[in-house]
Design a protein that fits this description.
heterodimer, A: alpha/beta, Aspartate Aminotransferase, domain 1, Aspartate Aminotransferase, domain 2, globular, B: mainly alpha, Aminotrans_V_PyrdxlP_BS (chain A), Cysteine_dSase (chain A), cysteine desulfurase (chain A)
Amino acid sequence: MYRCITKINLYNSAILSKKCEPLTFLTNSRFLQTETNYNIKEQVFDGRPLYLDAQATTPLDPRVLDSMLPYLTSFYGNPHSRTHAYGWESEEAVEKARTQIANIIGADPKEIIFTSGATESNNISIKGVARFYGAKKKHVITTQTEHKCVLDSCRALEGEGFKVTYLPVGENGILSLEDLDRTITPETALVSVMTVNNEIGVKQPISEIGRICKAKKVFFHTDAAQAVGKVPMDVNEMNIDLMSISGHKIYGPKGVGALYVRRRPRVRLEALQSGGGQERGLRSGTVPTPLAVGMGTACEIATKEMAYDHKWMEKLSKRLIDQIFGKLEHVIRNGDPVQTYPGCVNLSFAYVEGESLLMALKDVALSSGSACTSASLEPSYVLRAIGADEDLAHSSIRFGIGRFTTIEEVDYTAQKCIYHVTRLREMSPLWEMVQEGVNLKTIQWSQH
Amino acid sequence: MSRVQVLALYKSLIKESQKFDSYNYRNYALRKIRDCFRENMNLTDNAKIKEEILGGQKNLEIIRRQVFVGNLYKTDKLVIEMMK
């Protein structure tokens, strides 16, 4: 049996019991406490949690799995084998997938390289370009809100003697184009800015950045793992030289990604991995046929259904936001509310500790930020970069809506969220003070 | 393609999608099928109609296979399904 965590019994010592008024808007019997004593220990949930973490990963689309299965069973040839039919049929499938991926970003299939995921694509782009042109140009520009793998690749370059500028972003999470324009020097080899932020969903002005980079003859890389298949992307219109794409963020399989590398004018890279010289020598290693096929199908579906899916995300995120903002005060939406991807809603609930809220919301799979950093209790560096106060950075939750999310799931999540935020606030002395009109920032906390 | 055949395809697609074990796949498939047929309700171009029908038939085959695969690896129901 494929049973996962089904009965979740919560033992959270911090929030064991507290008097709490039952909320009338929660119609379900599970919420309606017969007695007013809430005890989180007694909250045993039947069934699997709902999934609202679409930025961490997405479920495989059944159509994607259907296209992959033949290559996991009957057609197992190595796509690089040139001497027999097993190789040819796999090669044909891989090339079809390459075309499907190229189509979604307006590229030529020859410009697509299969990798193991967006992390590898980012590593190859940043380290590869910097090292290739490193003899003449020793400067790389990125932003403070990039994904960990971009920031870490830049740190590695700093160790090799490169100068890296980490541009700040505004309170809305968007990079200032003047700042970028000013920072580019004749020494600059590469600018790397992500398209859609994985934590706050903010969309950077990619076309404008592309234009600036083209004018200044600097290579432009964008980490579009959260953007491809969700918002329209065109490498030529947007003047993008390198682009990282992930398979599992667009309902494709995990363990596969792609890198777009412009051919005209040619972008040259130093490969990170030595081997058989597959993928134009930029990424040696056998291309995993089933994964590549899955990613291709995922891209084809996304191309056809982008507008349909986008409309659905807009509808659901509006529904979620309206419900939460309608019932709760002191909720802050992180990141620009307009220049954003609607499937990612990052909210800070003031006077509530994010981790306690996540604990209480065990029947909904949510995250306070990126999955890579979800093990640490440190507040997100992205939220710090947009100038969120420490306490608000600690109280944030990211709601990730996907193609397979339903209205019912959004309603359930919103109701539970409202219920638990209200409950946690009622036991908070800070909230009590706020209700009495005390400005918390003026308090001199005594040291013990 | 007659109206009857189109309706028969619609019915089979809905009927087959209702068999998805996964709550999310089932609801997505039903929503998508309904929206798709509604969107194409007033198509008049015969070539376009034929193309859509062919796509629908292909999807019906995919749904049949994936319902089967889904049933091989069943999970427990989601919390909201248990509420009903």
